[in-house]
Amino acid sequence: MDEQQQHFLVVAYPAQGHINPCLQLAKRLVRLGNRVTFSIAAETHHRMAMETLPPLLACHPYSVGKYDGDIAQDTIDWCDYLQVLKSVGSRTLAELARDLAAAGRPVTCVIYTFLVPWAAAVARDFGVPSALYWIQSAAVFAVYHLYFHGHAGLIQAKSQEPLSSVDLPGLPAFRIRDVPSLLLSRTLLDITYFPVLDELFRTMDAKARVLVNTFEALELDYLRAVKPVELLPIGPALPSAHADGLDGAETSFGGDLFQPAPRESYTTWLDAQRDRSVVYVSFGSYAVLPVRQLEEISRVLEDSRRPYLWVARGVREGVKDSSQGMVVDWCSQVEVLSHRAVGCFVTHCGWNSTLESLACGVPIVGLPQWSDQSANVLLAETAWGAGVRAEPSAGGLPEAAELRRCLDLVMGEGERGEAMRRSAKAWGRKAREAVKEGGSSDRNLRAFVKLPR
After folding, report:
1. How confident is the model over 160-209, as pLDDT tens digits?
2. pLDDT band at 1; cut points 50, 70, 90
3. Ramachandran class of 135: left when φ > 0, alpha when ψ lies in -120 to 50, beta otherwise
4. Within 13 Å of residue 171, how many CA atoms lie on the same side as its CB?
5. In angstroms, rounded to a whole number, what is the distance separating the alpha carbons of residues 231 and 236?
6. Residues noted as catalytic
7. Do 320 and 423 touch, CB atoms closer than 8 A?
8. Where are the transmembrane segments (predicted)?
9. H-helix or E-strand spanning residue 445
């Protein structure tokens, strides 16, 4: 079957960090002439502020049963949620696939993210192939893969020693603190989500093809670390205006779960700032920092006398308003990072934020919270030369003096800061080259589309 006749069913876990790269992949598949159905949980589907979709892209939800309504996040039993997500989600996704076939649009391939591994079983039941879309780094994929294939003992033996080094085949030395937290069971969230990863990696075909939101120049060694699994880098997943340039009007992902501030409010403010003078502060769609940490950040921003744009996501306790800065609930992050005025990104270092910052040529100050974030800031600092980690004090949180050190390092005139800015800018060029027509990520995605179904 040729690529003009493909129909991809893209299934995402209902979180902003999964929606953005999946929706962008769906749009790229459509640009290659394919039909795509994007599926997300019903409650999230109804919250998404969707743009006008191209003709070959449709959005249809799956159900999470009793969790389909508007339920406060802090009241959810997440272990129960994941069980219902699997049982009801797989059943209703299968119903969707049957409905699409009955309408003359049969699915030819299912693409899914790592927290909905049950989508692969739905694909098998329909006799169609599936592919995991890995939306974290290739390095982190390699850590997980090695852990679940004979190397768990190396990590478990030192799990209580955060500064101890662990050597995994084909990877640089990691300290235990840089290992993804889901493998260390430090929090309830780690314990809750670990079984999903366990299922994913233990049921994955030994020669699986995995799409990865990264690009060859950034992670070539890590992409080769898990043979015979074939990792296909197809990233970075960015709106077209900031990536391949094929659609200058597509400046944002278009599937926000949060109400963004009016675009003109922050872009006009940014326009009035000097080049590379603004500190952009955002901790993504999920992380909730302690009030004391927010107060330390507020203090250092005030004392630095640098202009700043802070995404507070509705949390204002500890976030100080100031004449030198602007605080918004939400914004189009890639538009902000692409603005000439932004010189530094203070971030939790989720993979989307890390990759977007590199792709936009902006160096990072990292305050990792959980999951893959410590690994990401380690790579940004040591492998890619485009960031620095804010080290915690004895109390467990980076204090104002440490944050000031990091800001001065990244935005100052010293040799290391200059080197970081050069590195970030170089990675930005390489990222755009990868997704442009004929680039490595573009070639990989086109080759995947043409695979026999």
Report:
1. 999 999 999 888 888 999 999 999 988 899 999 999 999 999 999 888 88
2. very low
3. alpha
4. 29
5. 14
6. 18
7. no
8. none
9. helix 440-449
* Residue-range domains of the chain with CATH: 3-239+433-449 (3.40.50.2000), 259-431 (3.40.50.2000)
Q: To which residue do tokens 């030198």 refer?
A: 324
Residue 420 sits at φ, ψ, to 5 deg, of -60, -45
Q: What is the distance in angstroms between the CA of the first residue and the CA of the last residue of the chain? A: 7
| Rounded Cα gap, residues 59 and 237, in angstroms | 19
The candidate with the shortest Cα–Cα distance to 169, out of 159, 157, 154, is 154
Query: Amino acid identity, residue 72?
Result: A
DSSP string, 393-439: -TTSS--HHHHHHHHHHHHSSSHHHHHHHHHHHHHHHHHHHHHSTTS
Helix axes 16-31, 440-449, angle to 10 degrees: 80
* Helix-, strand-, coil-residue percentages of the chain, each rounded to 5: 45, 15, 40
Q: Is 78 exposed, middle or buried (0-12, 13-18, 19+ CB in 10 A)?
A: middle
For the chain, give the mean pLDDT: 93
Q: What is the pLDDT of residues 89-117, one digit of tens each?
A: 999 999 999 999 999 999 999 999 999 99
DSSP H or E segment with residue 299: helix 291-304
Q: pLDDT, tens digit, for every residue of 267-295?
A: 999 999 999 999 999 998 888 889 999 99
Query: Is the pLDDT confidence value at 373 over 90?
Result: yes
- How far is 368 from 348, CA to CA, in rounded Å? 5
pLDDT class for 51, splitting at 50, 70, 90?
low
| Other Cβ atoms within 10 Å of 206 Cβ, number | 8
Cα 6 from Cα 108, distance rounded (Å)? 6
List of residues 6+ apart from 246 with CB closer than 8 A? 31, 240, 437
Please give the Cα distance from 320 to 304 (Å, whole number).
Answer: 14
Q: SS3 for 286?
A: coil
In contact, 215 and 130? CB cutoff 8 Å: no
pLDDT band at 234 (very low <50, low <70, confident <90, very high): very high
Element (H, E) at 328: strand 325-328
The two three-digit tokens of residue 366, written as one number: 């990292």
Contact 90, 121 (CB under 8 A): yes
